[in-house]
Amino acid sequence: MKVGIVCPYSWDAPGGVRSHVADLALALMGHGHEVSVLAPVDDGIDLPDWVVNGGRPVAVPYNGSVARVNFGFGATRSVRRWIQEGDFDVLHVHEPVAPGLSMLACWVARGPMVATWHSSHARSRILSAGYYIAQTAMEKLSGRIAVSEQARRTLVGHLGGDAVLIPNGVRVAEYSTGPLLDLVDPTRPSIMFLGRVDEPRKGFAVLLSALPAIVEAVPDLQVIVVGPGDLDELRSALDPGLASHIEFLGRVSDEVKASALRCVDVYVAPHTGGESFGIVLIEAMASGTAVVASDIPAFRQVLEEGVSGALFESENPQALAAEVIRVLADPALRTEFEVQGWRRVQEFDWDVVVDDVIAVYESVTVGGEKVTTDLRGQIVGRLGGRST
Amino acid sequence: MNPVILWLIGIFVVLLGWYLSSTAGRLDRLHRKIDISRLALDAQLLRRSSVALELSSSGILDPATSILLADAAHRARTASDVDDAARSRAESNLTAALDAALEYPDDVAEVRSDPAGAELLDELDAAIRRVELSRRFLNDAVRACRQVRGQRAARWFWLAGRAALPLSWEMDDTPPKGLGPR
User: Glycosyltransferase subfamily 4-like N-terminal domain: which residues (chain A) (predicted)?
Assistant: First the structure.
């Protein structure tokens, strides 16, 4: 099958949707399908040959963080050209309600189309208005996928109807094997944080306020912090006694992230919300690391209400500290979480998950109909009275 | 007449025209999507009944189950030429027959021990899954279409033309218990 996938977020910047698209594309190619991915790109160097440059993205605030997306006539033209040249059997757009290439692709294409919803947000008036405007484009989608129960609820709340739940996949093998990081001292107990340190919903502040209590109980604790953000400012604001425990790695490659996850004893996820699916938890579990996470709905679901990892009350530093100390102090409990986590993670291996995605493709394609461009709904098309 | 009023009427007519044309376009698109979804569901149902027929004639199942399954699969296939209600009944019956044949995990394991049986079971599982998905997508499209057709403008101006009111496809498509959870 020839599959065209649209990613609305920049290919150069790491992110959940972008890695989902990359992994999905690779898994589909592994199953013998032909894939082309259209994504915004900052500089065109070093693109794999299955990624097509969708133009330079522009930074705009969206869904509580900054998204770098494409819009406008130029972007519309490049999407249309990609669809015309691609001759796809199915078009798969990601996050179609985020303003960007995906929304444009829904607008200019017709034929077998599938969309995946990633994020979750509460119903708001402004978003409802946005959904109304985007409705014409949404109505062309034949199959709708949500990556989590939360994302599904968002979609159903705004658009009605239903969606198929297909969770994110993880390339388990890449997290479970590979070199270790010498930065982490294996003789000392260690914990790790992953994510932007200056983005409130990633919860780094919660971890920071819990640290003094944890260090008091575990004096030789090592804290590994992986993720972008203004590290200099953060370091200067830290109490020196605390700072000596923390190792800031900044933004790192996926390989280094995987190595770091494998080295530490406990991965801490203090996220305060906005997370529709705990992909980071799955990655940590695939590395064989015990997980301690806040009890937001997405995490509770991934950790099976505490069976495959420990949960603490979200935004409560005391609860975080108590849970981390408990797990660090009890090797048997850690092993139990590692074993349960490893069992849980097999359900999310991309090799398994991609079969469900292919099932969706096959249930919307029929009789060899291809994806083509559609001018109806646009002024040119309406005046012309027909679609091309 | 006052030119201002003429202008206002003109603008109103243009806006109304634009609204009606865009709603008609929406309906056209939805009807088209329903047609495609129907064809897709049709293809998946046929695929399911042919695998069921193959399984019944494979000699892996006992004769009684084979005959029950063959009968249900054959009826489902021939019902596709009759009307929709008869067909969805026949397809639901096939679902029941499949469930009866593959109700217990032990029985399924026995079928799976035969290499040909394992292949048929995988194929059947895939077909059942795709029937569920296609039916869900079709009913989604039908619901969206009926909602637009229910709007006042669509009713007053006959925007749907002579297209028949689409119906959702109701049938039992629960997978056999013995195939296990996905």
Answer: 14-172
